[in-house]
Each structure stands twice: as structure tokens, then as C-alpha cells.
Amino acid sequence: MTFSKNESLCKDELQAWQLKHLKETLLRVYHLVPFYKKKFDEHGVLPQDIKTLDDIAKLPFTKKHDLRDNYPFGMFSVDMDQIVRIHSSSGTTGKPTVVGYTEHDMDIWAEVMGRAFTMGGVTCQDIMQNSHGYGLFTGGLGFHNAAERMKIAVIPSSTGFTSRQLLLLKDFGATVLTATPSFALHMAEVAKAEGYDIQKDFKLRVGFFGAEPTSEGLKNEIAHIWGIDYHEIYGLSEIIGPGVACNCKHSNLLHIHEDHFYPEIIDPKTGEVLPEGTRGELVITTLTKQGLPIIRYRTGDITSLTRIPCRCGRTIGRIESIVGRSDDMLLINGVNVFPSQIEHVLSKQEGITLNYQIIADKKGYLDKLEIDVELDEHLISDDVSYLGNLKKELQHALLNNLYINVEVKLVAPKSLQRSEGKATRVVDKRAK
User: Fold this and answer.
1) Which of 7, 119, 137, 229 would disulfide-bridge 3, Cβ 3.0–4.6 Å?
2) Final residue of a domain: which of 282, 302, 326?
3) How buried is residue 363: exposed, middle or buried, by Cβ count under 10 Å (0-12/13-18/19+)?
4) Are 114 and 216 in the same domain?
5) Do 353 and 317 belong to one domain?
6) Any idea what the CATH number is for the domain that residue 352 is in?
């Protein structure tokens, strides 16, 4: 199966497509979504003022709280009789964000997910074990529906019940795994403990992982442990769900489907649009969605964008793996620290695992940072001097990479809490 025509448009063709659909979307939201009419009027901008793609910078941003303020269906641009699917966030910090899909939107979702599967070489000959959560979370059903449309056999195992997951993985002969990176690592850990020979007992050849920022080291570890090709998939419910971007076999950068989702990179503090190649906050405008079109949505995800064509032949833009979130970034005594930076350092050190927790606290008036890291269970040493040297090596490496002092605490194997979904890596005690 080859990639679609829109993935390989020349620059002029792609920009013409984007501008046409941007103008249509702006007219749609201005006349059908009261929130956007009010927002545009307050900023003194009308849909007809947008004559070029660069003019998008004149438009106001949309933020997560805007969706919450218009709970549940105030951001929809169609009547409810056209909505065929409703998802929502967990709402852990207030009312959930609600997203709705028309039949047309479901087709787009299946299309971009199908593109991702194609990047991984998945065909109707494969069996996919879908270990993402089903329900209001978009992950499980986003993978499931697209796979079924491609005639891929799906095992809807969802999350949790790790021992049963492994049993199904072995007995049903799945060749494709979808999960969060942390759960994939946890599954491998349990498989070893239960006596599986991972390379012989399972038939996996490719995996799609997402929903949490992940270092290159952790990706390589998962690929190595399971003996698979690792594909990172990026998405967020407000835009469509999983499938906004995915990497092909030729690059670690993620192809973003910018014929459907127009990307910008901004300075998270000033809102200024940054040039290509510069790291900042990803902003996305939907170009083809009907149920919940969104204008300049601030994702909070930190990345960079390039439109240099990939060796695979696709010409759509590519983003780097999400470095972290602007709201997850830790400010430690004036220094910006992302969890992925710490994970990158840990991934290069032997004798430890990538099960860790970051704890920010106060010591007097100063911030302090502690990293609890599990020792590798195969480490055969209770030598105090060896463990002391290991701790010093880690602290030195973290200082060289983060430019701050970090207290490393080596803890026993399997002593940190495991996650079946997104891993909770950071505990910030300073605000408590």
C-alpha cells in the first residue's frame, strides 16, 4: 500500500489546498460557533481578512479552557443529529473537554491513522493487539476503527491485566502492538518475570506508541526488548485523537498530516510565530473537520517543525518527538528542565532501568530536584562503593546536561509504582 497523493504534494499545491480549506473553516466557525464570532470580533479580524497562510497569525489562539468554558457542546459547528461519536478528556483539573465527530470527521480520522499504519508497513495480513484504553479516551477506538477499515484483525485488549495481555499476545500471534511506551516497558518486565522468552514466544514485528513524551533511549529500549520497529504516533483529542503525526521507517521525525492539521510553532511566552527548525509550542488549526473545527489551538507540546522533504518521498512537514509540555516543564532555580532531558541521561547509564520518578521540592528558599531511579534487577552487586560510584556518575551526567545539581536516589527494582496508561513521572511538592 502506497501513501496518499496529499502526502506528496509540491509546496505550491499543498499551500493552495491549505489556504482553500482554511478559508472555508474560518467562515464555518465564524457563522456557526458563537465563541469564535465573539473572539474574532474582539480581535478585530474577519474571515475575509485571511488572504494568505501567513495571515493566520492575525487570528486569536484557542486554549483548553475555552473548550471547558463551553462545556459540553458549545464549540460544535453542527447540530447534534450530525454527530456520530463523542469523546472527552478525563477532566482531572475541572470539567472535561468534549469532542464530537461527524461521519466526515470519522473518515478523516481513519484516513490519517491508515497513513500511520502504512508508515509501519502494516497490512491486512497483520494482527493488532490494541492495548490502549477504550471508552471516552480517544486512543483505543482511534486505533481500532482505522485498523478495521484496513481489514486488520484487531484484538481489543485495552489496558491493564498485564498477564492476560501477554497470554493473548502469545496465543493469538499478534504482529502489531499499540500501547503507551511506559505500558510496553511494563509488559516486557512482567513477561520476563513470568518466564516468557520475548524473542521466541511472541510474533511482534512493529509497534505504535504514543500519549506521553518519550526519550530516544526509551524508544530504543522498547524496540530492542520486543525486537520490533518502533513507530511514534502523536495526537490529541481536541484535534482528532491519535493520528495527527507519525514517523516513517526513514526518519525519527514525525510526519504531520498538514493537509488536515495546519501546524505552527510559537514562543510559548510571547505567542510569536517562530521560524522552521526552532523549538517552541505546537499550535494546530484543523482544516477539514466539521464537528469540532479548532482555530490555532495551543497544544502545550514543545517541539520543532521542518518542511524538508523526507527520503520516503512524503513532502508534508515533520515535527520532532515531543520534548515535553510547556505546563510540565520544571523551573528549577531559574533553569528550565524537561523530564525527557532526564530520561535521555538515564538511558545511557548501565545498571539502572528507565523506571524513575522526578521529585521537585524546596530546601529553604531554593528549589531542589531528586530523581528516584530503580536499579536493574540483573545488577549483581551490593557493593556500597559500586552503588556510590553509580550514583555519582549519574549526578555528574545530569549536572553536565541540565546545568543544575540533582540528588539521585537509587531504589530497589520494581519499587516504583507502575502505570497502565500515561506514566506519572513528575511530583512537584513545591506548591503544596
Assistant:
1) 7
2) 326
3) exposed
4) yes
5) no
6) 3.30.300.30
- Of the residues 326, 360, 386, which one is the last residue of a structural domain? 326
Report the number of distinct structural domains present in the chain: 2
Q: What is the CATH number of the domain that holds 117?
A: 3.40.50.12780
CB atoms within 10 A of CB 402: 19
Distance from C-alpha of 300 to C-alpha of 340, rounded to nearest angstrom? 15
pLDDT of residue 379: 76
Supply the DSSP symbol for 124. T
User: For the residues of 175-190, what is the DSSP string, one character each?
Assistant: SEEEE-HHHHHHHHHH
Q: Which domain holds residue 158?
A: 1-326
> Does residue 253 sit in the same domain as residue 383?
no
Are 249 and 309 within one domain? yes
Three-state DSSP class for residue 62: strand
In this model, does residue 125 exceed pLDDT 50?
Answer: yes
Residue 294 and residue 397 share a domain: no
pLDDT at 93: 45
Q: Tell me whether residue 337 is exposed, middle or buried, using C-beta atoms within 10 angstroms of its C-beta: 0 to 12, 13 to 18, 19 or more.
A: buried
Number of H helices, E strands in the chain: 11, 21
Distance CA 176, CA 281 (A): 31
Query: What residue has cell string 513524551?
Result: 213
pTM: 0.83
* Burial readout 249-286 (b: 16 or more C-beta within 10 A, e: otherwise): eeeebbbbbbbbbbbbbbebeeeeebeeeeebbbbbbb
Tell me which residue has cell 477532566.
Answer: 91
| 317-359 tens-digit pLDDT | 999 999 878 777 787 877 778 787 898 899 989 899 999 999 9
For residue range 355-388, what is the model confidence (pLDDT) as tens digits? 999 999 988 767 899 999 999 887 766 678 889 9
Asked if 162 and 231 sit in the same domain, the reply is yes
Q: Over the chain, what is the mean pLDDT?
A: 92
What tens digit of pLDDT does each residue of 170-193 get? 999 999 999 999 899 989 999 999
Q: d(Cα 28, Cα 38) in Å, to the nearest integer?
A: 14
In this predicted structure, which of 79-93, 112-126, 399-413 has the lowest mean pLDDT? 79-93
